Fold this protein.
Amino acid sequence: MSTFRFIHAADLHLDSPFRGMANVPEDVLGRLRESTFAALRNLVALAIRENVDFVVLSGDIYDAADRSLKAQLRLQRGLAELAEHGIAVYIIHGNHDPENGLKASLQWPDNVFVFGSAEAECRIARRRSDGEQVAAICGVSYPQQAVRDNMALRYRRLAGSDLYHIALLHANVDGNRNHDNYAPCGMRDLLASGFDYWALGHIHIRQVLHREPYIVYPGNTQGRSVKETGAKGCYIVTVNERKETSLDFHPLDDVRWFAQDVSIAGAGTEQALLERLEAAAETVREQADGRLAVVRLTVGGRDALHARIEGSALLEEMLQHLRDNESMRPESGGAVWFDSIRVQSGLPLDEEALLTQDSFLGEYFRLAGRTASDPELCEDVLREALAPLLAQPKLGPMASRAAEAERDDWLRRARELAAVLLAEPDESGGNAR
């Protein structure tokens, strides 16, 4: 067997709607909504430029089961371009785009093979230069959105074949809690299969779970929220004549998401804090490397300045100032959109001393600590505080989900707000006593 190369990508989520973003200018929103297609174009260009032999796409090619016609036509165009260069493409569908979703009747290029959902099957991949058989590619698509059985157990190597075996699987390996537990399987299931490379999809964080054999999540090709920060793209995988495997990551994203922390410690004044926020914006711009950057700023640390931040509109006004400044920048160079700004700062308290004090604030901090460490007590406190919202048919489910996601931050904010309202500043306006 001679050396060959292929691209492993997953979770393209074509035509993702990017809902729920407030006060976003039309040009930025348009760039966001086009970003998954831009990542697809970048993938096609990369495959051609790097002269790979084939491409594997491990599920969630589309963002919704009922694929938009726009997404299907854009994919058709990209795959046709790959066909012109003789690059084969092997596809499985995942929970976002299962086989039973609505789709148009389109003519796909001959270089494309889409695995069905009835059973795991294998196709032979060839090197483009001479047509030599180099790999057996196996896969199975989701028949419907929620697949709960262990699909990895369906995969079998071709009997008597010495080809390099690649398995395409859209699954949650070893129960990642941040993703739906679809097609759950264990690492040992994959290791016992005899496959040389598991081309995984579903988890949007890039990670190599195992080497020899390789078990790989490439992450998604384009981040879609502040929960998906950093470079997004694909792997180019090189396999030599001894079946030794190497991976090279290539970014494909057109928009990059950032979560940037800014400390108020030692700032003292609004001017100093604003300058730190502006410096953070420039750091993000450099790291985005010419892309549109979407950033959530988080103000942390401890300083007396926090008393003027907590409960005021100061940070929102600074956020708008940053947006106004950005709108006046020349178009050359990467742009930054400031999505939001969060408060995680506090007064410069001596917490250890405060916890021993026989005072209302000391007792409050002790109660907050017990609540944070006791899930049942925490749930009771939040349920009581949110009772009016939870009783509303439409708002109740939203409030419940928000409480689960933001519980720790809400408790911390409540504690810091109490410190602002109840603590007495010392003569310097710093530590509470």
About this structure: The chain has three domains: 4-251, 255-346, 352-433. Residues 235 and 249 are 4 Å apart (CA to CA). Residues 426-433 have pLDDT under 50 and may be disordered. The radius of gyration is 26 Å.
